[in-house]
Amino acid sequence: MRVGIIALQHESNTFLAAPTTIEDFRACHLLEGEAIRAAYVDAHHEIGGFFAGLEAAGIESVPIFAAWAIPSGTIKAEAGQELGARMLAALAAAGPLDGLLVAPHGAAVCQAERDFDGHWLSLVRARVGAGLPIIGTLDPHANVSRRMVEACQALVAYRTNPHLDQRERGLEAAQLMDRTLRGEVWPELSAVLPPVAINIERQRTDSLPCRELYRLADTLVARPGMLSTSVMLGFPYADTPEMGSGFLAVSDKSRAAGQRCAGELAAYLWQRRDQFVGRLTSIENAVRQAAETPGTVGLLDMGDNVGGGSPADSTALFHAVSRAGLGPAFMCLYDPAAAAAAIAGGTGSRFHRRVGGKTDPATGEPFEARGVVASVHDGRFREDQPRHGGQTHYDMGPTAIVRTDNGHAIMLASRRMVPFSLAQLTSCGVDPAAFRVLIIKGVHAPVAAYEPACAALLRVDTPGATSADLRRFEYRHRRRPLFPLETDFEWSEGIEG
Ligand SMILES: [Zn+2]
Q1: Within this chain, do residues 234 and 355 fall inside the same structural domain, yes or no?
Q2: CA of 68 to the centre of ligand 1 (A)
């Protein structure tokens, strides 16, 4: 038996002005054939799980195509076309296959195809025909479309946020493929997509209210004929008709049991939808709470959530902390020009420059940093623990640490980096415990790394392209009505009569 592996992963924030190009994929991962195995086989990533699961089942794995770019703007039309063409060419060259394991993210938007995951999965389905099993994984930040569901026999989403079970879900998909190819099961996929957007602030899976929702999903999967249930939290920064929550269920040979489970999950969410509305803490209140909390406090900058595509150069929170005289504080900024200037000056040189605040005026003025270049680095680091995103090797480009005269530390990076790992700091000689405040540009993705280092983590309602307050965005494509942007409507599709 031979099973192909195809991944095309992008979380597209359609509120960003700059589109995502093919170079952005090339700078992250744009791989074909055996290079995919080399990059992913040991990673805490679903593709690593695919390889491990197929090997354990004695099935030959055929890595075909894997593309991934850091979350950013809408994918350019030409880039979408090139990705599709390269994928199909690689698929044609892969030889005869018995099945396909696929790894979409689920929230990719292209200028030419807003439902980009539905688009490329349908292309793959059309190429391999209706009889070949296609089984895949999804990021729970997917905005699930009917086309995605129709193209696949089964889709299994990660069950943790931060995403620490990516490899396990890849293994699960591979095991399902093995059982399917042995004729033991024939998976059928059902979806119910209730008109509810779960606020990002509420999306931590081991806290309420999500914890109970996942518990129900675990209960339902134990029913006869059920193979898998998935909770889709949704990605609110992709302005598409599919934006919002969703429930997927995989059942054996018939959709009936799965449809019922997905409907029950959707009904549960609909009935408790008020619990999934964000509880938002202003910058002012967050700074006050941080001042009252002893130890190191992590302030999560929800508006500049790099893992949701934000520019990583907002200064709003840092200005507020600095104005309040709270410190010492640490912040990482994407500012290649400032990093280059600091590196040119060299370790020990004086530094005086306005840093950050270059992309979106609403997220704060540049910060006037006056101090000393403490150290310069190549920006590469390694993380061996399971972390959100599942990568092992990271590269934030040439990086400098500036110690300001008033005691803060600012990391200036040349590439945008999601704060997945404390090795980002320690590899540059920065000890997180030495700070009163760590400004962390994320919401849940940083938790696995930062929670052990912080006495408290506070999620802050900051402005930006990933603001937790969806009323700040002008949507043109989303469905209406959609709770909580609209509240005065009824919905009953998923509720059993
Ligand atoms: Zn995600």
Answers
A1: no
A2: 13
CA 355 to chain centre: 27
Give me ligand 1 centre to Cα 183, in Å.
Answer: 32
pLDDT value, residue 496:
47
Q: Where are the alpha helices (DSSP H) in 57-151?
A: 77-93, 116-128, 146-151
Residue whose token pair is 């606020």 = 199
Distance 235 CA to ligand 1 centre (A): 8
Task: Give domain status of residue 492, yes or no.
Answer: no
The CATH code of the domain that includes 191 is: 3.40.50.2300
Do both 296 and 445 map to the same domain? yes
Asked, for residue 417, whether it belongs to a domain, the answer is yes
Number of structural domains found in the chain: 2
Q: 290-327 pLDDT, tens per residue?
A: 999 999 999 999 999 999 999 999 999 999 999 999 99
CA of residue 285 relative to chain centroid, distance: 27
Residue 346 in domain: yes
- Counting as low any pLDDT under 70, the low residues of the chain are 494-497
How far is residue 239's CA from residue 236's CA, in Å, rounded to a whole number?
7
CA 346 to ligand 1 centroid distance, Å: 38
Tokens 């004086």 identify what position?
Answer: 350
C-alpha 171 to ligand 1 mean position (Å): 18
In a domain, residue 483? The reply is no
How many whole angstroms from 200 Cα to the centroid of ligand 1? 10
CA of 290 to the centre of ligand 1 (A): 27
CA atoms of 195 and 200, how far apart (whole Å): 16
Instruction: Please tell me whether residues 328 and 448 are part of one structural domain.
Output: yes
Domain hosting 74: range is 2-276
pTM: 0.94
Ligand 1 centroid distance, CA of 21 (Å): 21
154 and 229 share one domain: yes
Helices marked H in 206-331: 210-221, 256-271, 283-292, 316-323
Distances (CA, A) of 107 to 208, 244, 310, 422: 24, 10, 15, 27
Same domain, 250 and 357: no
pLDDT for res 494? 64
Ion ligand 1, residue ranges at CB < 5 A: 139, 141
Q: Which of 232, 254, 276 is the last residue of a domain?
A: 276
